[in-house]
Design a protein that fits this description.
With 175 residues, the chain is mainly alpha-helical. The protein is 70% helix and 0% strand. It has helices at 6-12, 16-35, 41-57, 68-97, 113-124, 127-137, 143-150, 154-171. It is globular.
Length: 175
């Protein structure tokens, strides 16, 4: 993705048109990454807004010579991690102290059998395994890019990818 490094400098000086240009250029990437972890459009939109708020709150920390797209992807993934942790804590609290859940019959059309099983299996993976797998297989990032984005070593990314694939195969019965 070609990126005008001058936009960062202008955004750091408070240029609103530069900030809008950055949002326009990177919003599809941010939405795509977030939608890999959250299904609700409202959740995706809220988290994307959080990502861009964090970006512009920390714009003075961005160096125009660094990989901006990778830095923004890391902010996005970390924001998703934070939200997953909050969601897990809320869910535990509701299960412990909240009312009994009311389940309505689903109005969604049935998914093709294989796709539904694969999606459910992927969602059942721990985020530490699911996120690198999605970044590798869906976002087509290299191991090096995933390592930079997630703040891990390349070896750690490879181990997580191996474990994620092995666990998925076990879940789907493809030993």
């Amino acid at each position: 993705m070609e990126f005008d490094r001058e936009l960062i400098v202008r955004a750091q000086k408070g240029d609103a048109s530069a900030q809008e240009a950055i949002v326009r250029q990177f919003s599809s990437m941010v939405f795509r990454l977030i939608s890999r972890f959250f299904r609700s459009r409202e959740d995706v939109e809220d988290l994307a807004q959080d990502v861009f708020l964090k970006l512009f709150a920390r714009i003075d920390q961005v160096r125009s010579d660094e990989n901006f797209a990778g830095w923004l992807a890391r902010v996005t993934v970390n924001t998703c991690y934070d939200e997953l942790r909050k969601t897990r804590r809320r869910k535990t609290a509701m299960e412990t102290y909240g009312p009994k859940p009311f389940t309505e019959p689903s109005v969604a059309p049935p998914e093709p059998d294989g796709y539904g099983k694969a999606r459910i299996a992927l969602q059942s993976l721990d985020p530490k395994l699911r996120i690198p797998l999605i970044l590798k297989e869906v976002e087509e990032m290299s191991v090096e890019e995933i390592a930079r984005t997630m703040g891990l070593t390349q070896t750690n990314v490879k181990v997580r990818l191996f474990r994620a694939r092995k666990k998925l195969a076990g879940i789907l019965g493809q030993r």
